[in-house]
Amino acid sequence: MTNHEPTPPERTYITLDDARALECNGCGDCCDSRRTDGYWTWGTLPPDQFASLNNGQPLIIPLERAPSPEGSPPSDDAGLSADGWRNRSHDQADELELHPTRFRCAAFLPQPDGRGLCGNHDRPRPDRCGEYPVRMPHIETELAEVGEVALNTSAFPNCTWHRMTLVPNHDPRLAKPAPPTD
Ligand code: SF4
Ligand code: SF4
Questions:
Q1: From ligand 2's centre to the CA of 69, what distance in Å?
Q2: Cβ neighbours of residue 162 under 8 Å, at least 6 residues apart?
Q3: What pairs with residue 117 in β-bridges?
Q4: Exposed, middle or buried: residue 14 (CB in 10 Å: 0-12, 13-18, 19+)?
C-alpha cells in the first residue's frame, strides 16, 4: 500500500537569538481567527477588550460562527462576514487563559496581496502582539529546562517562524535539518 499523504516540511532548528533576529513578514495569519478557520484563538481577553489601547473602542472582538444572510455583503461593521462568522459579546469565560476565544482585531488591515498588517504597530498593543512567537515570557525558562521549544506556528505556513524549534547554542541539531516529527 502506498501512502500518498504529503510529507510535512522539515523543522528548522535555530537558536533563540537567531530566531529573535528574524522579522515578522506581516502575513497577518495570527491576527484573526478566521484566517485559520477558527483554529487560532485569543486567551485571557479582558472585559474592556483592550479599549484602553484603541481610543476607547474594543480592539479584540470575539467572534462566533453564524451563517451569513443570503445576499448580505461581507461587512465587519455589521458584525457579519461572508465566511460565516459574526461578532459576539464578551463573556466571563473569555477572561480565562485557556478559553479559546475566536476573534478579530479592529486594528487589522487586510492587504490586496493576502497579507494583513497591524494598524496599531507603532502604538501600545496587547502584550502578546509583540511577544508572539519568540518573545513569550516562558520561552527562556522552557528552553533551559527542556532543551528545546517547538514554536506554536504550525497553523501558519506563511509565518516567518513556521516549523521552527528553538535549541540552545551549540546544539548539534543546528547543523542539519531534522526528520519530520508530525
Ligand atoms: S493589535 Fe495588531 S498585532 Fe495585535 S492582533 Fe491587532 S492587528 Fe494583530
Ligand atoms: S503568523 Fe508569523 S509572520 Fe504572520 S503575522 Fe503572525 S508572527 Fe508575523
A1: 32
A2: 9, 153, 154, 156
A3: 109
A4: buried
The atom of ligand 2 lying closest to the CA of 156 is: 1
Residues flanking ligand 2, CB < 6 Å: 24-30, 132-133, 156, 159-160
pTM: 0.85
For atom 3 of ligand 1, which residue has the closest CA?
129
Report which residue type is found at 80: L
Each residue of 10-63: pLDDT tens digit?
A: 899 999 999 999 999 999 999 999 999 999 999 999 999 999 999 999 999 999
Domain locations in the chain as residue ranges: 1-26+132-177, 31-123
Q: Is the pLDDT of residue 91 over 80?
A: yes
Distance CA 33, CA 100 (A): 10
Q: Contact, 109 vs 119, CB < 8 A?
A: yes
C-alpha grid cell for residue 124? Answer: 501600545
DSSP string computed for 53-114: GTTTS-SEEEEEE-PPPTTPPPBTTTTB-TTSEEE----GGGGSTT--B-EEETTEEE-TTS
Query: 3-state DSSP helix/strand/coil percent for the chain, to nearest 5?
Result: 20, 15, 65
